[in-house]
Amino acid sequence: MSQLLSVHKRHVWAGVVGGAGVWMRQTNVVWVALVGGAAVERWMRENGVVSGGLLQSVGQLVQWMKSPRRWREAVWVAVPYAFVVMAFGVFVRVNGGIVLGDKSNHQAGVHVPQMFYFYAFTAAMAAPTVLAEAQRYTHAVTSRQVTCFEMANYALETVYANLYLYSTLGLCSAPQWG
């Protein structure tokens, strides 16, 4: 819902909906930041700040940053999302963690598979954009098929080695190695 509101340039409402999402599940702050970053990027493309490929866009962005008189417009696009992220930071600081409730059953830790889920979801959502420029990169990927296979295998092994099941469900807490 936040993304839809953002696309329709209702950034304040997108921030409010994103804030409600963070209230329900604290990890949604990542999605609020992603929607905010996409909104700023969309604003920059619509206003001619950046255009073209990545390297050309970086050069244009550097030139734009040297003259800050149009920064104000971009800042107002980012403010609703930045407010949610900063409020979440204050909450974490005051609360002593991201958990809202019983902290003994919600210990923070690195969850490697969650990062892979996030990357896979982001890649799927970005597929239309990526595929539009895929022809330029096709040769680079196909010439390194073994390397791509090895990387996929390593990713799957990493997920398996770091997969933790909830002990409250009566399942093992980590895979047992031989």
Question: How would you explain this protein's 3D organization?
Answer:
This protein has 178 residues and is mostly helical. The chain is built from 8 helices and no strands. The model is unreliable at 166-178 (pLDDT under 50). The longest helix is centred in the middle third of the chain and has 25 residues, at 71-95.
Q: How would you sum up this structure in a few lines?
A:
The protein is mainly α. The protein contains 8 helices and no strands.
Helix and strand topology:
Elements: H1 2-7, H2 11-24, H3 29-46, H4 54-66, H5 71-95, H6 112-132, H7 135-142, H8 145-161
Q: Share of helix among residues?
A: 55-70%
Q: DSSP strand (E) fraction?
A: under 5%
The largest β sheet comes out as: none
In angstroms, what separates the terminal alpha carbons? Answer: 46 Å
Q: Would you tell me the overall average pLDDT?
A: 76
Structural class: mainly alpha
The arrangement of helices and strands along the chain is HHHHHHHH
Number of strands: 0
Report the radius of gyration as a whole number of Å.
20 Å
List unreliable stretches of 5+ residues: 166-178
Shape: flat
Per DSSP, the total helix count is 8
